[in-house]
TrEMBL record, chain B:
Gene of this entry: acpP
Pathway: Lipid metabolism; fatty acid biosynthesis; Glycolipid biosynthesis; KDO(2)-lipid A biosynthesis
Function according to Swiss-Prot or TrEMBL: Carrier of the growing fatty acid chain in fatty acid biosynthesis.
Protein name, as recorded: Acyl carrier protein
Keyword flag Nucleotide-binding: no
One Pfam family recorded for the sequence: PP-binding
Keyword line: Cytoplasm, Fatty acid biosynthesis, Fatty acid metabolism, Lipid biosynthesis, Lipid metabolism, Phosphopantetheine, Phosphoprotein
Modified residues (O-(pantetheine 4'-phosphoryl)serine): 37
UniProt xrefs under HAMAP family: Acyl_carrier
Lineage top rank: taxon: Bacteria
Intracellular or extracellular location(s): Cytoplasm
Segments forming domain Carrier: 2-77
Record-linked InterPro entries: ACP (IPR003231), ACP-like_sf (IPR036736), PKS_PP-bd (IPR020806), PP-bd_ACP (IPR009081), Ppantetheine_attach_site (IPR006162)
Length: 419, 78
């Protein structure tokens, strides 16, 4: 059977424009939250988010680094973040210059939950105010979700499968899981896989606030707003950014002497069949996804060392924790579990991929990132190591990453150190 | 350089991200400045906005160089 390993990583997050800066800040317990600067929030219920910082910030993102000026002008920020993260991952894997045969066997599966919402919003206003003759000719392909995969394939000449998952907040995890299958099935030897999102715009914030999903009660204390598993949690904080990994067939990676971070050993997916925004109250869908992933990985209770929870800082956190307990045991079989959304917010379609990368780095550095703002843990958290506030050194061999999305879609990934 | 020429060149630089000294009157949008057909649609829109002229599709198709654009605008602006 073909095995799939991770050989490259790329990140653009509210805590850094690359993998190492983001990870260093995450482990140091920093928060990426602050007042929204992308637009005037004076009439919004929610005025805070975890924004990717501008280029002149200490750990800001320079869009010119990997994205051509002309493309950057034409496309929404989620595509810019995605192209940059994909470029980082290829550079990390030593795969920027592949020969033609390799390029034929290299593909992309980089998705997004919503896609180019800021551009849809602004061009709709152009349409309304100036008429159809002023709508940008780049409007459509600058907003489409599969245009990260499209742009990346054009930039790097990748002629293998070109795919994009759209499963709301499960997108990043599904992208990696599906791409791993494409490699297993022999469709490709190398896949760039991940997710990206950038919807911190008036209609994005208003839409999620109206859906009662966003924290609207902590505008004066943004860094305290995302507090998964805490009794005082009151909705998620929107983040933005991208995470992309290079997945590679194991023998292929070994033959070229690639650095191998981890192996993708388990992937489970399910549907809640319950409600468009609320998870099933018994967490059956989440449980099914985790069980499927564990079964495929050939692992059981006690084999997982770290769980990166979906943990959005909403009431759903309790449901997820109960499901994880049913699957791994009341003490999670000794696993630590944290929600890094406490630090970087919820990257929606980017979340699953960014968090998968955090899981991989936990394996690399034998340290697990903290759950910030866990001042008063909710009922049901007793006896569970939620890594409150401070990162924790520990043995990490196998990790479980959960992602759940609107529509009742669930994905669980399991990755393991390669001996 | 006429005022029209200067403003046209500025728009081209802003939209295509090319060096200003490459934007000569003879420069072809596609062959010399790296534009594609959609970029030209966008440029024509920007010229229409900037100069308050209307450039119909059949006229836009004949605008292939910076000089063509300047000439058309000079002849049609109010």
């Amino acid at each position: 059977m073909r095995r799939v390993v991770v050989t490259g990583l790329g990140l653009v997050t509210p805590l850094g424009a690359d993998v190492e800066t983001t990870w260093k800040n995450l482990i140091a317990g920093k928060s990426g939250a602050g007042q929204i600067t992308h637009f005037d929030t004076s009439d919004q219920k929610c005025t805070i988010a975890c924004e990717v910082k501008p280029a002149d910030h200490e750990y800001g993102f320079d869009p010119d680094k990997r994205v051509d000026f002309k493309i950057r002008r034409q496309v929404d920020p989620f595509i810019v973040f995605g192209i940059d993260a994909a470029g980082q991952a290829l550079e990390d894997a030593g795969l920027v210059d592949m020969d033609e045969d390799m390029k034929l066997r290299a593909g992309c599966s980089i998705g997004s939950g919503i896609g180019g919402l800021p551009g849809i919003e602004s061009e709709s206003l152009v349409l309304a105010n100036k008429g159809p003759g002023r709508v940008s000719p780049h409007f459509v392909h600058g907003r489409l979700i599969n245009l990260i995969s499209g742009q990346v394939s054009i930039k790097y000449g990748l002629m293998g499968p070109n795919h994009a998952v759209v499963t709301a907040c499960s997108t990043g995890a599904h992208s990696i899981g599906d791409a791993a299958r494409m490699i297993k099935d022999g469709d490709a030897d190398i896949m760039l896989a991940g997710g990206s999102e950038s919807t911190i715009c008036p209609i994005g914030i208003a839409g999620f606030a109206q859906a009662k999903a966003l924290n609207c009660s902590s505008n004066d204390a943004p860094e305290k707003a995302s507090r998964p598993y805490d009794k005082g949690r009151d909705g998620f904080v929107m983040g933005e950014g991208a995470g992309v990994v290079v997945l590679e067939e194991y023998e292929h990676a070994k033959a070229r002497g690639a650095k191998i971070y981890a192996e993708v050993v388990g992937y489970g997916l399910s549907g809640d069949a319950y409600h468009v925004t609320a998870p099933h109250p018994e967490g059956k869908g989440a449980e099914n996804a985790m069980r499927m992933a564990l079964k495929k990985a050939g692992l059981g209770e006690g084999d997982i060392d770290y769980v990166n929870a979906h943990g959005t800082s909403t009431m759903a956190d309790t449901i997820e924790l109960a499901a994880v307990k049913r699957v791994l045991g009341n003490d999670l079989g000794g696993a630590s579990m944290s929600s890094t959304k406490s630090a970087i917010g919820h990257l929606l379609g980017g979340a699953g991929a960014v968090e998968a990368i955090f899981c991989i780095l936990a394996i690399r550095d034998q340290i697990v990132p903290p759950t910030l703002n866990l001042d008063d843990p909710d009922e049901g958290t007793e006896g569970v190591d939620l890594v409150p506030k401070v990162a924790k050194k520990r043995e990490v061999k196998a990790v479980l990453n959960n992602s759940f999305g609107f529509g009742g879609t669930n994905a669980s990934l399991i990755m393991k150190a390669v001996d | 350089m006429s005022d029209t020429e200067e403003r046209v060149k500025k728009i081209v630089v802003e939209h295509l991200g090319v060096e200003a000294d490459k934007v000569t009157m003879d420069a072809s949008f596609i062959d010399d400045l790296g534009a594609d057909s959609l970029d030209i649609v966008e440029l024509v829109m920007a010229f229409e906005e900037e100069f308050g002229v209307e450039i119909p599709d059949d006229a836009a198709e004949k605008i292939t160089t910076v000089g063509d654009a300047v000439k058309y605008i000079e002849e049609h602006k109010g």
